[in-house]
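Hi C.,

You asked whether I'd gotten around to modeling the 253-residue construct. I have! Everything is below, sequence then structure, no commentary in between.
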Amino acid sequence: MRQTPPPAVVPEPITADPPHPVDRPLLTQSWLDLAFLHWAVDPARVAPLLPAGTVPDTLDGVTYVGLVAFRMHEVGWFRLPGVPYLGSFPETNVRLYSVDARGRRAVVFRSLDASRLIPVAVGRAAFRLPYVWSRMAVRHDGDTITYTSGRRLPGPRGAHSRIAVRVGGRIAEPTALEHFLTARWGMHAELFGRPLYVPNAHPRWPLHRAELLDCDEDLVVAAGLPAPAGPPVSVLYSPGVPVRFGRPSLGRS
């Protein structure tokens, strides 16, 4: 039976800065040129898709599905320098929002398209994450950024995305929803049937308004979610942040 947090658990506050430092990182990397697209979704619809021990995280009774396209830059282990080629590649994620029995808010990845085969293989084998090898590109044209992807392996073949955004002005003070969607300090997953939590830390997001110029994708449906109904309720851009991931913690099965 799927584990759920007891009713008395109160989710941790949503904070723009990491609530806990990551002093001894397991992984380091930078996330650059991020486009955040989000659609509202019924929490009951996504609850069966979350790892054991978690439930949908909600804001005013609503949860969200996110499509996030960006450039991964120089992934590195521990405090070693990041790897320039194998550790740098475009990525596009489909993600949900979760909270566990300890009140820790996090993201749950339903798919992670990436253009480097070795990182895809490591992510699938070591952490059982749903990485997919895809052809991908990120192109700049003035203040417009276009992200494209097409699935290779393991599929479904033909799943794709094309996102184009025009970057607008810097957001001085993000709204409650914008904090909810971006200020995420961990990842929930399952490893060999046990709940897995991986913390992360990074500087406060520099967020910008963004205009969605094009969105042709079926990655959301390929991730087992309903097709988005209408345009996203939130479109944001960030030039990026350096990120540190802490040691994973495993719960009871």
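If it helps when you're writing up: Residues 117-127 form the longest helix (11 residues).

Thanks,
B.
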